[in-house]
Amino acid sequence: MERPELSAAIDAAAEALVGVLDSAVHRHRLAVSPTQLRVLSLLRVRPETNVNGLAELLDVVPSSASRLCDRLEAIGLVRRTVDPRDRREVRLAPTAAAEVLLEEVRCRRHEAVRAVLERMPVRGQQELLGALVAFGQAATTAQSAATRSA
């Protein structure tokens, strides 16, 4: 397969995967929007994040990130804490309820992907696994190289 065809196939597969993941979540009418879910996911893996850092990650202005956090705090999914090293800094963290929600979403998504994989022949699943591992390694290498050159 030529590279442009391969790129188009990956793009189409990524779109299909996003559709599967989104439908797994939207069928259950969560109390949060996709953007709010993304915020919770980002805060889970970056526990020292403040509003400005979150704004950078989301590529929005700080006031928009702050309003997002206000809404999440109001429904008990985010807490603000003062940084003990610098009392002027306020850190954001997902609450226990947010952790439960994120785990529920993860489980729903895994089940949705598993249902699609079960429609594939075993050999196709094995080839996909090998290709995804190789793709992940290549992407990590490319990101590391880009970070070092920046």
From TrEMBL:
It holds the Pfam family MarR. The keyword Magnesium does not apply. GO terms for molecular function: DNA binding; DNA-binding transcription factor activity. It comes from the Bacteria. InterPro entries: ArsR-like_HTH, HTH_ArsR_DNA-bd_dom, HTH_MarR-typ, MarR/SlyA-like, Tscrpt_reg_MarR-type_CS, WH-like_DNA-bd_sf, WH_DNA-bd_sf. Transmembrane segments: none annotated. Residues 3-138 form the HTH marR-type domain. Keywords: DNA-binding, Transcription, Transcription regulation. GO terms for biological process: response to stress. The keyword Transcription applies. SUPFAM superfamilies: Winged helix' DNA-binding domain. This is MarR family transcriptional regulator. It comes from Verrucosispora sioxanthis.
